[in-house]
Design a protein that fits this description.
It is a single chain. By secondary structure, this protein is of the alpha/beta class. It folds into 3 domains: 2-131, no CATH class; 137-242, Rossmann fold; 263-453, no CATH class. Helix content is 50%, strand content 11%. The chain has 17 helices and 11 strands. It has helices at residues 11-39, 53-63, 72-77, 79-95, 105-131, 149-155, 190-196, 216-224, 232-240, 250-255, 263-299, 347-354, 363-368, 381-390, 407-411, 418-434, 437-453; strands spanning 2-4, 7-9, 137-142, 161-168, 181-183, 201-204, 228-231, 304-310, 316-322, 372-374, 403-405. A 5-stranded parallel beta sheet has the order 5-4-3-6-7. Strands 1-2 form a two-stranded antiparallel ribbon. Strands 8-9 form a two-stranded antiparallel sheet. Helix 1 crosses helix 2 (53-63), helix 2 (53-63) crosses helix 17 and helix 4 (79-95) packs across helix 5.
Length: 458
Amino acid sequence: MIRIFTHYISAKTALLFVLEALILMFAVYAATSLSAALFGGTRGIPLQQLAVVPLVALILMTSMGLYQLDSWEEVRSVKIRMLLALVASTLFALLVLNASQTPQPDAIIATILLALAGTALVRFAVYRLGDKGAFKGRVLVLGTGSRVANFAKHAGRSHNYEVVRYVALQPCEHFVPFSDVLTLGSGESLLSIAEKFKIDQIVLAIRDRRGGGLPINDLLMCRLKGIKVTELPTFVEREYRQVLLESINPSWMVFGDGFGAGYCRAALKRAFDLAVSLVLLLLALPVMVITALCILLESGWPLHYRQERVGQGGRVFTIYKFRSMRIDAERDGTPRWAKANDDRTTWVGRIIRKLRIDELPQIINVFKGDMSFVGPRPERPFFVDKLVAQIPYYALRHGIKPGITGWAQVNYPYGATLDDTIEKLQYDLYYLKNHGLFLDFMILCATVEVVLWGKGAR
């Protein structure tokens, strides 16, 4: 994994982006230069201007979900997304970067064909290498107790690493497959095991480290041999972009990096919120007017509803959303989470919830300062009181402003159970620990994918 500012991105994704950016730059430059030589059309775009193209490609391809695919078969299943992203990137390069001249149709077609051929070839090569384990690290986990039980369930599905063995330092109950367990014997060192299995990284998953339970000297020897040694919470944070509740402790959060805040960061985030919200408001105003008319025609007034939510510091504020349910959705006065195929949802409501249009009036909350554009989803006080009592660290998500969209919203579908809430909290804690403008920007790109393809809506 590669850390860019405060956010982790897989090495395969970074390599794929760099190669595809270079291919797109070459395609635009080669096609326009060839067109100019053969037909006297648009001149080749200067290389210094083409530096903008990778940024455009990143935005569009991320928005199409093309950097969240883990196999070549999945890439082929979304070839329409690839085509749309490349066409849009090409048109941007030809029309915006070279706006003083009208590009020839042959230059546009040649650019798209070159870009399609190049990206298809690169993706085929990268994913085939991935299938052969070229991008997978070999991991040795130190510990077999309850702390690794949940981690072990997901480890086998990772495309970034392979857990080769779990090492038990002393006799205990194993919460991982017994066939994967090694016991550290008196005549065998941790270094010899690591060298035997060609280990790249050792993950520490031992809860009780008192009384010499941790082989410090062995770990130091492994470090000196170039083998990384990582705490389980840090490893999970890096690989899954989550903070695993079962593995963390207060000292890891207090003394580790992240969870930072300050006046400068708050001022930048506020400026970012206002700029993005203003642009979105201008773009979405026609959609909001049409939505209001549709709600009015189907079920009458009110067009929107107000609801109390818990914001930063536990302060209660009023949120605004388009009404997507019947007027009597909670006629018994008991708050309830929305569920899949909820019969309280109106016909218009199902559409606007699917496309997340019902969230647009929350732009008012951003302008008022109650919310940020990106942050944890604000919950109702009724649910917050229960969840704080049931889930450790739940109250931490109120350390920053809630958002219209967020890391949990784009990575996990809408949840209506306690387990769903815990899963989403782990994403919220990752955002709380690592939030910054770069991560906000990546979340905005992923939000476009959620809206375009209707992921996780109810």
